[in-house]
Amino acid sequence: MENRIDIKPYVFALIRHRRAILLHFLIVIIAASAYAFFAAKKEYKSEMVFLPPISENSISSILPGVSLPTSSSSDIMPEQISTIFLSKALKRKIIDKFDLYQHYKMNKNQNKFENTVKLLNKSLFLNSDETGSFGFSKTISFTLSAFHTSRDTAWQMVKYSFDLLDSAVRAISSDRARLNRVFIEAQLEKNKIILDSLQTAVRKFQIENKAYDVPEQVKMTIKAYADVKAAMLGNEIKIQTIHNEFSGETPEIAALQKSNLALHEKLGQIETSQNPAVMPSLENSTKLLPQYANLMQDVEVRDQLILFVTRELEQAKIKEARNVSGLLVSDPPYVPEYKARPKRMAIMAIMVGIYMMFVLCFFTVAEFYSLSVKDGEFINTLRQAFKRQSV
Question: Can you tell me the distance from the alpha carbon of 116 to that of 127, in angstroms, rounded to the nearest whole number?
């Protein structure tokens, strides 16, 4: 059979001690009321709402169809603002400004700064308001709240904390902008050196091969080849015409044949000559044209890159010189008129509830002891438990 607990004796025991329980209830009510209304210090709350930095588009690409990354008015992400606010450097300034060691009575504490920071974290909050769901959320605003026993101090703490946070955000953004500017300047100088070396290589290539404008020179070579070839064909036609009209050799035929030999030699030079000339040979053109195109393409690409980096450098200089706040206040703080805490009724309810729970437990345990120990059931139960454990 299952062992069932009979709660009737305990209920009757509580009823028998109802006067004592009521007396304890009245005592704790008086004590909780005295603490909530007289001992607990009233604290006032001041708060402000501000918006995170706003993103802006960077300069557009100088090349059509190419997208570039975006930059923002502040390099601080909204998620990083909370981290900056929790920094101990910022908290130390707040503690020194409002003499919180004295306020929290930590002057004689061995670890007074750490303990004061813990107490300050209970009185100074930065909460973020987010929108979105399913793991994709975006911070749309921040709420900065301060509690203090003085109305004016609570208001001043909010303003001073925001000023420190704003200054830290601007300092970090400016430092990042400076580092970005230094990096871009180094890249610009590096690309200028590379461009100078490419231009030197182009000049050397042009002088060695007399390839000043290879595409135009190749056109001239092709035109010259066509003119020589046309002259040879014209001479052949004349020779054939003279042969048809006269029999045997004539001085005119000999002159035309001699001219064709010179033209044929000229064609050979145009086709295979390796000597540098203003008009390169056709065979040499097949080598010069790709080399010249590659060199000019490298120079053009480097020119475009330097133009883009120069524009980015100007943007970096503007961002470094910018001293505008990235945090926008949407709801400024005000001096509070009524206390925010403690919640007296909540304090009283918690104190009375905890104390009465211990009182009821005390009387219930006392009744259990009187029923078990006096009748010997408790000792017999322990003996049987030890026996079963030994077996």
Answer: 20
